[in-house]
Amino acid sequence: MSARGRNEFSERLPDQLEVTNAKQLREIVASQVRDINEPTKLSLAVNNDDVQTVTLLPALTKSLLEVLRLISSGHGFYMIPVEARLTTQQAADLLNVSRPFLVKLLEKEEIPFTTTGRHRRIRANDIFAYKEKRDAERSQALKALARLDADEFLA
Question: What's the rounded Cα separation, in Å, for the pair 103 and 34?
Fold first, then answer.
């Protein structure tokens, strides 16, 4: 099966034609954006003669441009609905940690989970919330270290 025969980029990188198409579409959409926080109007030619106007709300515009940016840069990606239930491996991959480390977090009740039979399932939005909290804590710690370093340097 050719790369274009598959319809997702979670297990492969885009080929050169897909990269080129994504660059073209990204440029077209971006050229129509007046204010990223306002709706964007696009005129689409349908069946050569019929022109239809589509209004993209800001969240949709930002999401579409981000997906096109990833593809036009030659990157694959995986879309996860926030209500999705993830396996421990999928959750570990999102956090960029090992599965055993994630299981320890679950056992310490740092991230909520449910069980389906013997298997743990974690809601994607719980993973995103944990990741946001973890990243904020890391950022605070780095700022504190930078202040200490600056104080040592000035002393």
Answer: 46
- Note the pLDDT of residue 5: 46
* Contact residues for 121 (Cβ-Cβ < 8 A; gap 6+): 85, 86, 87, 113, 114, 115
For 115, list phi and psi in degrees, rounded to 5: -115, 140
Mean pLDDT of 102-117: 96
Residue 137 to residue 65: CA distance in whole angstroms? 30
Distance separating alpha carbons of residues 70 and 76, to the nearest angstrom: 7
Q: Looking at this protein, which amino acid is placed at residue 132?
A: E
3-state secondary structure of 42: strand
The C-alpha atoms of residue 126 and residue 108 are separated, in whole angstroms, by 15
62: Cβ contacts below 8 Å, ≥ 6 apart: 36
In this predicted structure, what is the pLDDT of residue 152? 79
Cα 107 to Cα 91: distance, rounded to the nearest angstrom: 14
Long-range contacts made by residues 137-140, C-beta under 8 angstroms, separation at least 24? none
- pLDDT of residue 134 exceeding 60, the answer is yes
